[in-house]
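This section describes the prediction task in plain terms. A model, or a person checking by hand, is given the sequence of a single protein chain and must write out its three-dimensional structure as a string of tokens. No templates, partner chains or ligands are provided. The sample shown here is typical of the held-out split.
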Amino acid sequence: MGEQNPGGGRKPAKVTKSAPAKKPAVAPRKAAAAVQDAPPAKAAGKPPKEESRTALVRRARRINRELAEVYPYAHPELDFDSPFQLVIATVLSAQTTDLRVNQTTPALFAKYPTPEDLAAANPEEVEEILRPTGFFRAKTKSVMGLSKALVEQFGGEVPGRLEDLVKLPGVGRKTAFVVLGNAFGRPGITVDTHFQRLVRRWQWTDQTDPDKIEAAVGALFPKSDWTDLSHHVIWHGRRICHARKPACGACPIAPLCPAYGEGETDPEKAKKLLKYEKGGFPGQRLRPPQSYLDAGGKPAPPLGAG
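The expected answer:
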């Protein structure tokens, strides 16, 4: 997930609460303005070496607020119409992109719309459908085993409790929180690779274990913020704060980031590193929410499209 906004002493074109009533459609222009007026390297804000707990909480929450201004339409980037579709899609997203999963699952769910159908499927036929996602034999075994467990243990329904979800084959805490937060509206923090990378760059925690990261970051925010926080951070990681070449010069939270300068700080060069809608490309969903489309986002192309 991605982002943008400048700061420093001048505070040019910064997204602030003083802006008039927010409309999702304005967000890309806010982000574009941030790219054009991105701060020079010296404007980046580095928290003090001995940042107090109170200061850390304030900085973390401000980062989340700034990202919410840039991505008011942030959402899960897997297409789904039910908890069953979401849990299957999330399992399939391992070692591949959400886009590839979204391009693959329409055929899967058209042929096997229920856990009962998928549990009783011919494995070779499922493997052929899942081949584009990589590791298709292992994933076939996972989704069929998961479907069988749903049928045998939960009457073919995806449970809405963490303790039940993590008992399912192939479902860990990360997958469980994706399902709980986005299919059931129950707060959870999704600690994927983007989330881990960014919260460490921001010095919210120095933990490396996903469960410890979840606990450390969760303690900085009200529980009600957890699901949207996950979307904001992941969108920022996918669109701007990349693993190898973060677009620091196009980042809306540069004044709040201890790692500013690890990536490209020149605004024009940084702008060329942007991905998805802020770089002029589609997002990962074939069927994104209307709020995303209203904000200028583009649906992803179907599998096989040029």
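For orientation: The CA atoms of residues 8 and 296 lie 29 Å apart.
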